[in-house]
Amino acid sequence: MLSNSDIADLTALRRDLHRHPEVSGHEAQTARRILTALDAQAPDDILTDLGGHGIAAIYQGTDPGPTVLFRAELDALPIQELSESPHRSAYPGTGHLCGHDGHMTILMGLARLLSRQRPARGRVVLLFQPAEETGAGAQAVIADPQFDTVSPDFAFSLHNMPGLPLGHVGLAEGPVNCASRGLLARLTGKTAHASEPENGTSPMAALCTLMPALTALGHGTTQDADFALVTVTHANLGAAAFGIAPGEATIMATLRTLTDDRMDALCSTALDLLHHTATQHGLTADHGFQDIFLHSENHPEATAHIRKALDALGMSHDGSGLPMRASEDFGRFCHSAKAAMLFLGAGADHAALHNPDYDFPDDLIPIGTRIFARIARDLLG
Question: Is the pTM for the entire model greater than 0.70?
C-alpha cells in the first residue's frame, strides 16, 4: 500500500507534470522528469527513446512467468488551459487536459510498490508511451526493435473518465473504444478575379455539398455493430482576400466506427462521395488520412483479471457507457497481447476531457495504483 508520504510525493509529481505539458512527439522534458523519478525506484532495466520519447521500466521476478505491461501516456494537448490553480500549465496553448499527467503518476505509484517487492515470477513492464493523442505513439513503440525484448503477454491501461462517479470503474469485454481517422481532402479548381468569377472554377458549391453529405454518412449508436459517425472539424475556402474568386478549398473530417473492418467501408464511401462531388463541379480532389486509431477491444481473459482485482478491492464496476465513441491508441497493443483497458471515474460532475478547465483528480492516484498493483499481484504473485 502507498503511505501518506508516498501519496504526497506522487501528488507533487503529478502537479509538476501538469505544469510542464508537452504535445505529441515533443515529450523530451516529460520523459526526463519520469526518468528522474524512476531512478529512485530502482527498476531492473530501463528502455529509453522507445518509439520517440517512450520509456519502459522493467521489474523482474525470480521465477519464469508472463510479462505484464501497464501503460500510461506522456503527451498533452495543444489547448489553452483556463485555470487559476497554482499548478496550471506554464506553457501557453498547451495543457494536460486529458489526465495523462495523472496516468503517469499512477504508474509511478506502482513503481514505488514494485521497488519494495518484486513480482514472484515473470516481469512487470511500466510503459510511458509517447504520442497517444495523434494515434502514432503505440505503433512507433511496437515497431521499435527495443520493444521486441518486452513482448508482453498481457497489457493493461486505464483512463480517467469524467461523468462516472469518483472511483467507479467502467469495464466490459469486446470493443470499448471506436476506430477513428482524420480525412484531409483538397479540392482544386481555378482562381479568377473576383469581378469575373465566371473565368474560374470555384470549389464553393462542392464544399457546401460535402459538409452535410459527409455528416449524413453517420448513423446508429455504439451499441450497433455498423455504427458510423463523421464530424466535419474544419473547412477553408480560397484566400482571405476580396479580390480573388477561390480556386481551392480544404475540408477536414473525423471518421469514426465501432470496429476497424467497418472503418474500411466508411472510408471507401467517403472517398467515393469526395471524388464524385469534385467531378460534378469540374474540380480535382486529393486526400490523405491522419491521426489513425484502431478500435480498442478488451480481451476476455484480461478483462477477467481486472474484474477479479476490482472485486477483491471491493470497487464498484459495470459496463455502462461502453463502448464509447472516443478513440484510444491502446488499441494497437490488443493485436499482440491479451489486453484490456478500464475507465476510472473522475466524478459525475467533473469537467470533461479536453475541456480547457479540466484537471486530473489527485484522489485517483492511490485508487489507480491499487488496481494495477492488485492485477500484477494476482497474475505474478
Answer: yes
